Amino acid sequence: MKEITKNIFYVGVNDRNKTLFEGLWPLPNGVSYNSYIIADEKVCLIDTVEVDFFMPYLENIREVIGQRPIDYVVVNHMEPDHSGSLALLRQFYPDIQIIGNKKTFDMMSGFYHLTTGLKEVKNGDSIDLGSYQLQFVLTPMVHWPETMMTLCAPNTPLGRKTLARQEPSTVNVLFSGDAFGCFGALNGAYVDEQMNCDTFWLEMTRYYSNIVGKYGTPVQMALKKLAGVKVDYICSTHGPVWHEHVEKVIGIYDRLSRYEAEPGLVICYGTMYGNTERAAEVIARAAAQAGLKNIVMYNVSQTHHSYIIRDLFRYRGLIVGAPTYNTGLYHEMNVLLDELSQKDIKGRLFGWFGSYSWASKAVGEIARWNEEKLHYEQVGTPVEIKQALNADTLAQCEALGREMAEKLMA
Fold it and tell me: In terms of pTM, does the model score above 0.85?
């Protein structure tokens, strides 16, 4: 049995077949759908899994509780990768009570037509399981309107004694929904101290930037609600159970949700025949020669934008360049800038360049994106290249890279 701490078990599953999360974000290492069960005087399931995995999920549950009934299932988040098994679960456990907030049940009615056997909770409400007590913390817009977290803490007997009441654990477990999660299936182990976590750190940043990134302010509000609460385990719905690295994980979310970034530079370019790419290389070389060490370069037609968005959450500087195409901006660059505008990333430094053969449009279009949508701080003078680099435009590219590096390191 996959026991996390006394009477709290992991019963999740791995998905190693899906290639795109939400049909958008690459999953080179798969993803886990995490669910947990508390086998106390009352049995409580925390979240479920995607419906395609229901039968192995049911086996995991029965491995822990056998034929015991389940009293409650807590729904921290209604996305179908976590709530998808609810309707089937009700078929196997007809008396189970579903715990959620008002917005949870509004969505549940639409998704699964479940309208009975519901127990509504508000922020700060609690439920007694026996040795443990659950307390509910509403965290709207992290990253859906109904999201909440559930804190499982040792119960206080309040003067009453029951033979069935067990000696409680001394640890606090936070069931955090999608918060603190990351991409990547779990390879045998499920608690961080039992595994090498190196592959998960960048995948946590990519998960946050791709899925949660727009909602920095709600994340900060959620962190404030949890401030001062002793948390020994964080049980997210994706990725490892955090125990050894709880402080690091909370720190990562705090930093990302404040849009705090390292002094580094992301250079993104689109290119058709190599001229814009050569300009990007000149800019990168100049930034490196100026002393900037953290520089990453991406061809927007070759690298999935998921990774570019991740690195813009990591680094403060962004320089983009693309050719004019169909009297507008190169398509893939247009798509990337639109994606960035939706993330509402704050506090970034921005430079740009563009190329054209006979109709100058790219540089102006990038400027319009920044003025109307991105609102980043402009660094340097935009470089406009007609046909190919010459001595003047090469020097302008060097100046752009150098100015960005100096600004980042200042």
Answer: yes
pLDDT of residue 157: 54
Q: What is the pLDDT of residues 208-229, one digit of tens each?
A: 999 999 999 999 999 999 998 9
DSSP state of 7: T
**Total residues found in the chain within this entry:** 410
Strands (E), 129-189: 132-138, 148-154, 173-177
Distance from C-alpha of 267 to C-alpha of 94, rounded to nearest angstrom: 55
| Calpha distance 252→248 (Å, rounded) | 6
Rama region for 159: left / alpha / beta (φ>0; ψ in -120 to 50; rest): left
d(CA 316, CA 304): 20
Tokens representing residue 188 in the block:
């045998």
> Nearest to residue 50, comparing CAs of 4, 91, 18, 81?
81
Q: Which residues pair with 31 in a beta bridge?
A: 15, 184
Report how far residue 277's alpha carbon sits from residue 24's, in angstroms, rounded to the nearest whole number: 26
DSSP per residue, 299-350: ETTTS-HHHHHHHHHHEEEEEEEEEEETTEE-HHHHHHHHHHHHHT--S-EE
